[in-house]
Amino acid sequence: MTTFHVTSQRPSILYQQKNSWLFISISFCVILPNVLAFAAPSSSSSSLPPFLETDSSMKVALEAVRKASVITKALQPSNNNNNNKIQTVSKTDLSPVTVADFAVQATVLKHLRTAFPNDSFIAEESSQALKDDSQLAERVQIAVNSCNNENNKDGDCIEMVQNSIDLGKEYESWDEKTGRPSRVWVLDPIDGTKGFLRGQQEGGQYCIALALLEDGIPTIGVLACPNLPQSPPEYVWTHDDNNDEKGCIFVASKGCGCYQLSLEDDGSAKRIYCTPNSMSMASKNKDGAIENTEDTNNTSQRRRQPQYGRFCIGVERGFGDALGQCIGTAKVLHGSLTTDGEIRDAQRLDSQAKYGILARAGAEYYARFPKPGYVEWIWDQAAGYVVLTEAGGQMTDTDGDAIDFSLGAQLSPKVKGVLGSNGGDFHEALLQAFGQQEKERKKKEGGS
Q1: Which of 72, 101, 295, 425 is an active site residue?
Q2: Can you give the pTM of this predicted structure?
């Protein structure tokens, strides 16, 4: 008898290979057996902040993303080897979407709809690809049912899975007559799909990004990062030992702060803060909470000066920095680049996990500048916004204006880029540096 620790280190979740158990391979990725049990988060620990124990919306959101993370951990390729691939399809913008994207969206939205039948949804995927490809649909169904059959021994049929996925497109039926629902959940089922495809051993970061909007205002943000180490200074995993520290969840509730939890429910929570954003903030956060989680020299005045701020930015430079604006901004801030033209002290990371890194003081700056004409989708920013701002940070557009999440599934076309920071002097410096590089860039290009 062989015992597999597939998704958890807790004794209550083990997977055994017996004749009566079924392991199904999907494009060389093992899917968990249909008998998988999921343990709901505990609310008994006194170490949890009150909102994690009393806020039903947060509790259900955590249940949903923890359940979904079981799927993603089973499906993520272990490396970027051609013999270890998961089935993907391409959307009209050529971005990839995987079996896991569909399975996570179906799982999370069904869980939320069951708990909150009057809430509505904005989510990235639709079921059309499954309707066009029966083999893909079957694989998604198997993945969903692998961890979603507590009260349904037979599991969901393909039509039920498709209907759960399409809950995420309810916003398309909103109109002036019916109006926008007051409570809307926003989901990116796998933010950082390319990172997910890079694999567990290739620095493949991704997250399940879930936010709640109430009257258009983000009030809950959850970033489940199954492949992100809990402890600094590591950002990626190159081996599978010490698994107890692999995977974390960033949770934030408006007015209640930001916390880091373990991916598995161990009943503990650690409050986190961004790097103090001015010299006058050096004595902030002396309430016993964790300050500057990732700054191993957190008493250094140097780290609290904007010109030494660290960037945490995307891996895909062609998308997140199409015109070189991020590199140009960093050059203005730091005074120079490295000898190979890279940003100094920068960490390139897939997904909104970057906001978690800023929230736990692992970096001070985030910048995203999509190619001209691209209009941002709110699922790429909403959860990260709550996590960052509740940790003491700030997010604006490149003009310094607040991000408006009340317009529907997309941000305003006027938003030409998104800037995030630990706030205060740092954000002012980031805005000024962006403005200066824009003048230099346009002058170089012959613009006005």
Answers
A1: 101
A2: 0.82
